[in-house]
Amino acid sequence: MVKLATAREARMYGPPLAVRRWEYINAGVYVFAALLLAAGLAAVCADGGAGRAGLAVAAVALAGVAAVNAHDLAAHLAGVDWRVGLALYDAQLGLVELLVPALHAVGCVLGVVGMAMLVSQGEGAGYSHRKEKHAANMLLAAALLWLLGSVLNSCQVYERADGRAQLLQSSVQVPLLLGSLLFLVAAVLNRRGGVSRRSWAWLWLAGSALWLAGALCNVLKVFMMHQSDALRLEKLRGGAQERLSRDREGRVPLNWEEAARRRALPTELR
To answer: How far apart are the C-alpha atoms of 17 and 58, rounded to whole Å?
Structure first.
């Protein structure tokens, strides 16, 4: 249940007059969801009859994070006027700003389904080993997607951002990456079997604590971005920024098929 952390200028979290408010709401919902996840997993670790309720709370938290990542994806698409083709010129736009939140959102959906299966498990005659296995597979797939998204999230290149921006980025990315790794280890142990639910839940609890730390750092990062002495942020690269600017000014129509056809022609025929 990690989230995108980027230092791009091209993002639009809401209407022009309420962009800051919606970006703060996005960061606040993520903090609340991370706190809710930690509380739910703490209940699973404590057990005492609260294990199923804790899993239900954790599933609700993951649903909240899926919504946050969907908002991140929409914000960065809106920031480039929904021109997905710009990813052809700026690989980071496609691999980080667009792919990372999509991976995280899908992982959260799989996590919700897996936890719902665990919650629905009955006791005694109502117990289904097949359902338990499917739930373990869902949680493992979710953890793999979170880790892949966290790795991509950490592979950002800085050309313009100042030292403060890079430090704030790292303070968000590193806890999210470590937390995702702990979640993957816990999911593997759960999938192999022979380990009690409380054992792998402790690893999940540690991972959720790291995610909560990353969420709090993300709030600080968003706050710093909107100060009067705002951080220097990254622009699109590879000519994508110039193409987007010309398209907004209406001077050059953005025709991707025509551009691709021209690139395929020999130089003397262009």
So the answer is: 34
Q: Quote the pTM value.
A: 0.82
- Answer whether 105's CB lies under 8 Å from 56's CB: no
List of residues 6+ apart from 97 with CB closer than 8 A: 4, 6, 8, 10, 11, 76
pLDDT tens digits for 36-67? 999 998 888 886 666 788 889 999 999 999 99
What is the rounded CA–CA span in Å between residue 211 and residue 138?
Answer: 20
DSSP codes, 33-62: HHHHHHHHHHHHHH-TT-HHHHHHHHHHHH
> If you count DSSP H runs as helices and E runs as strands, how many of each does the chain have, helices first?
9, 0
The residue type found at 107 is G
How far is it, in rounded angstroms, from Cα 80 to Cα 78? Answer: 5
